[in-house]
Amino acid sequence: xxxxxxxxxxxxxxxxxxxxxxxxxxxxxxxxxxxxxxxxxxxxxxxxxxxxxxxxxxxxxxxxxxxxxxxxxxxxxxxxxxxxxxxxxxxxxxxxxxxxxxxxxxxxxxxxxxxxxxxxxxxxxxxxxxxxxxxxxxxxxxxxxxxxxxxxxxxxxxxxxxxxxxxxxxxxxxxxxxxxxxxxxxxxxxxxxxxxxxxxxxxxxxxxxxxxxxxxxxxxxxxxxxxxxxxxxxxxxxxxxxxxxxxxxxxxxxxxxxxxxxxxxxxxxxxxxxxxxxxx
Length: 280
Hints:
Blueprint: E1 2-5, E2 8-11, H1 22-26, E3 29-37, E4 40-41, H2 44-57, H3 70-79, E5 84-92, E6 109-115, E7 125-135, H4 150-161, E8 166-171, E9 176-179, E10 183-188, E11 191-194, H5 205-216, E12 221-223, E13 236-241, E14 245-252, E15 255-256, H6 261-279
């Protein structure tokens, strides 16, 4: 497999990072995961906008963004023969003297890589647990895909060890935020709800796309905080993720949920948009 590193296309066996890279030492890095469909990265502009905003917030050099081009991404996808898969963009701060303070002179590493994962080609239904890990709603890093994801690592691992597919997080107010790898939506009386970004969650690209699909198709959708104790009274739920699209929720902590037709409709509309976008 070929990867893109700092402007060059090289074999993955020659792609190395220093043990003194700040991404390795402190998690001082940021990334994007982009769905590739029909050989094209889906929602490229939205992903790059979020990545650029994150780089600015984390005080990375502004000229760094020039390395991350659609032309380079398409070339990498082509030479690796990726028709349906994942494009990953990772940016780390690079090597610096010891200490947390951002160095005045930075030499970041920009990596793009592709994968042939088990991309979901049908509507799957997942079993969710509730993680005991709390998310602090005012933490600005919740809105960035940084390289420090230990909460997500632990929550996902503990969920799978207990026989679930993923785990829901709650914040300090016991409000539902998201799962370890996806945004969360629920349905009550044919109305769709999703937690607001201010609750402490990632502004997901697919989340935004699905909200727009709802609006365009006359479906009632509201950004609303939901207490974890309200789980027992919802009718149905689903997740959104760039790599997996839309996933139905079969149950939460063993409590079964309805396989609502709205979820199937949204999945159909999303797949149509995915195909339409990548054909243009």
